[in-house]
Amino acid sequence: MALNKVTDDNFNSEALQAGALVMLDFGATWCGPCKALEPILAEISEEYGDRIFIGKADIEEAPKIAERFSIMSVPTVIFLKAGEEVGRFVGAERKDKIVKKIEGYL
Q1: CA distances (Å), 103 to each of 14, 38, 60, 91, in order?
Q2: Quick check: 106 and 51 in contact, CB under 8 A?
Q3: 31, β-bridge pairs
Q4: Which strands, in side-by-side order, build the sheet including 4-5?
Q5: Cβ proximity of 102 and 48 under 8 Å
Q6: Which of 69, 61, 68, 1 is nearest to 27 (CA)?
Q7: What is the pLDDT of residues 72-84, one digit of tens each?
Q8: Dihedral of CA 7/98/73/80: which sign?
Q9: What is the pTM of this model?
Q10: Which is the catalytic residue, given 3, 22, 24, 34?
Q11: What is the pLDDT of residues 4-27, one digit of tens each?
Q12: How crowded is residue 67: how many other Cβ atoms within 10 Å of its Cβ?
């Protein structure tokens, strides 16, 4: 399953209206660790289905969202509940660690 593309234009309608836990991956096309994280997030998206909305935001295509969440390096993954940040991690993480974080927020 492909990750949901999130941009400055669709952030409110896509991510904030998801009605589920939102996991937003900030990355860039030139970022190696970002590319390594993408298949892991795609697997998680398949496994969790509608219980979690996983979005991918390219910091160069979504600078307003990146600024809103003070993204200083990529990859950075933030977790949102009802539009409010409840957690984040910076850098590529192993799948088991990400799943543990998700379970703590569900």
Answers
A1: 22, 19, 30, 19
A2: yes
A3: none
A4: 4-5, 52-58, 21-27, 76-81, 84-90
A5: yes
A6: 61
A7: 999 999 999 988 8
A8: positive
A9: 0.92
A10: 34
A11: 899 999 988 887 776 789 999 999
A12: 11
Residue with tokens 């941009």: 7
Report percent pLDDT > 90 for the chain: 80
Distance CA 46, CA 30 (A): 25
**34 classed as catalytic:** yes
If you count them, how many residues does the chain have? 106
pLDDT (tens digit, 9 = 90+) per residue, 42-87? Answer: 999 999 988 899 999 999 999 999 999 999 999 999 999 988 899 9
Angle 106-93-33 (CA atoms, 0-180°, nearest 5)?
Answer: 130
Q: With 0-12 CB in 10 A as exposed, 13-18 as middle and 19+ as buried, what is 36?
A: exposed
Of the candidates 68, 65, 23, 14, the one whose C-alpha atom is nearest the C-alpha of residue 48 is 23
Q: Catalytic residue among 16, 31, 90, 99, which?
A: 31
Are the C-beta atoms of 61 and 49 separated by less than 8 Å?
no
Structure tokens at 54: 């996983």
